[in-house]
Write a structure and sequence with these properties.
The complex is a heterodimer of chains A (241) and B (265). Helix content of chain A is 52%, strand content 4%. Chain B is an all-alpha fold and 265 residues long. Classes of the chains: A mainly alpha (241), B mainly alpha (265). Chain B: It holds the Pfam family Ferritin_2.
């Protein structure tokens, strides 16, 4: 069963305050960079699939190679899956039947992706993260659609940029099976926001005919905002094999 | 569009990239381009950079040439289709922006692939958009036009996906192919949506396409990934429809050519 060790508060000043002081404690480098690439903090030993209440000081160190990239994808899928679970648990006022169906579909896809990585990675997988969506106001349609759009866009760009680091063709194929579904999400979410225009494949995500791509070093600082633990990405590949 | 960053990324991806850029003066290339010309010219510059890196296409590995010509065939098919269609009045005005944008993207893809392939690129074939009479009113009935569009886009997504492992020995090209692949997926979802379909593919449902297009969704009902039966794991959590929607499945080159063949004149 899916665990729900996550803050569901939509506005929580105290959480923000705690978070801010945590960031201050970790240091300016972490605040600006968002991820620690050379952190001396001893790695926290965590039981692989165990649900646990993560605390702010925990550092999760991603492995290198294909396993690192797959865990990186697992992080993004955990964020997306949990986000849609919360959207459905806290539906905004006036959510239409079409929108409800959309969010149920998105939730189904992301929960499936998360389950795939959790099962495929097993003991090599990171634990379930402690996620923090306190910056998103779930009762506001525009906030929810904007967040959904952003997560889907970052996810697509991340897979586009991460694929080249995979050395096992089977891993590349599975990543390819997921990224096009993320790109479909981008298209439909944008269509819900800006109907009958060109936003579905707009020129801020598809530049000169190519959907943007992002490196892990660009994506993880964005993802870190929603994660209580600190993700240490120092082992992720940065050059292709 | 930042050309400098493209080169920086290519260099990061492929350490020998600049070493292979023998005929291109890096500084000269950058200084001659204003920001505006970069935005307009970037795809062709990227393409020629990729080409130069691999030595005017003659050094492209044979398997990569095959994949790119296969992709070029599909892009020709799409581009000529939209180029004809968007000049016709049958497209309802609210959908014109979408089809016009897609036409432009396909045109860029054609030009990019042609430039990378250079002399090894195949010429544009002649197409029959009735698919040997299966779709007699493609360019006079918007419903047919949109259905054919959906078939092309969903096939395109599956085709690029199937070829990704064949580009692993040419990483900069792999990355560009993945970016095209995701672009085609945004098109596919949009076209499906305007046809009253979900943006994603449920089971192996024909998604409102006639039997002549059955091959487009063959195998999309797969529920196992890397040997993991997700339908079993997610029983009671995600319905099987959702499990199949969550993954787009690849098609082999042969499967794609079976779908495409009726459209070749």
């Amino acid at each position: 069963m899916e665990n729900s060790n996550t803050s569901t508060k939509t506005t929580a000043p105290s959480v923000m305050t705690q978070r801010r002081s945590f960031l201050r404690a970790v240091g300016a480098a972490a605040v600006t960079g968002g991820i620690l690439t050379a952190c001396s903090t001893a790695d926290v030993q965590v039981s692989p699939n165990g649900a646990r209440a993560g605390s702010a000081g925990d550092v999760i160190t991603l492995p290198g190679g294909d396993l690192g990239i797959l865990n990186y994808a697992f992080i993004l899928e955990q964020i997306e899956a949990r986000f849609y679970e919360l959207v459905l648990a806290n539906p905004y006022e006036g959510m239409t039947a079409l929108e409800m169906q959309l969010f149920q579909d998105l939730r189904n896809h992301e929960v499936t992706h998360r389950a795939f990585y959790r099962t495929a990675l097993m003991s090599a997988g990171i634990p379930d993260l402690t996620l923090d969506f306190s910056s998103i106001y779930f009762r506001q349609r525009t906030d929810v659609l904007e967040a959904a759009r952003m997560f889907a866009e970052i996810g697509t760009a991340a897979y586009n940029g991460g694929g080249k680091y995979l050395t096992d063709p089977e891993n590349l194929t599975v990543a390819g099976k997921i990224v096009s579904v993320e790109a479909r999400h981008v298209s439909i979410i944008r269509e819900m926001e800006y109907m009958n225009q060109t936003a579905f494949s707009g020129d801020n995500i598809v530049i000169d005919g190519l959907f943007i791509k992002k490196e892990p070093s660009e994506v993880l600082p964005m993802a870190q905002k929603y994660i209580r633990e600190t993700i240490d990405a120092r082992n992720l590949p940065t050059t292709v094999a | 569009m930042n050309l400098q960053s493209i080169f920086a990324e290519l260099e990061q991806v492929d350490n020998e990239f600049f070493g292979r850029l023998e005929h291109v003066s890096r500084r000269g290339l950058f200084s001659s381009l204003t920001k505006k010309t970069v935005a307009v010219a970037a795809p062709s510059i990227l393409a020629s950079a990729l080409t130069s890196a691999y030595g005017q296409s003659s050094a492209l590995p044979d398997n990569v040439v095959d994949v790119l010509n296969f992709a070029l065939t599909l892009e020709y098919l799409e581009y000529r289709f939209y180029d004809t269609g968007t000049n016709l009045t049958m497209i309802p005005s609210q959908y014109k922006p979408a089809f016009e944008l897609i036409r432009r993207h396909e045109q860029i893809h054609v030009n990019l692939l042609k430039t990378v392939l250079g002399a090894k690129g195949i010429p544009e074939p002649k197409f029959d958009y009735t698919a040997k009479g299966n779709f007699p009113d493609t360019f006079s009935n918007f419903q047919t036009f949109a259905a054919v569009s959906q078939a092309f886009e969903d096939t395109g997504v599956r085709a690029y996906k199937g070829q990704a492992p064949n580009l692993m020995n040419a990483k900069p090209i792999l990355e560009t192919a993945l970016q095209i692949h995701a672009t085609e997926a945004t098109h596919a979802a949009r076209i499906r949506f305007l046809r009253g379909q979900k943006g994603w593919i449920t089971l192996a449902s024909p998604s409102g396409l006639p039997p002549a297009a059955a091959g487009v969704y063959m195998g999309e009902d797969n529920v196992s990934q890397k040997g993991i039966n997700l339908q079993g794991i997610l029983s009671g959590v995600v319905p099987v429809e959702g499990v199949t929607e969550a993954f787009d499945e690849p098609l082999t080159k042969d499967q794609v050519m079976t779908i495409v063949k009726p459209f070749l004149a």
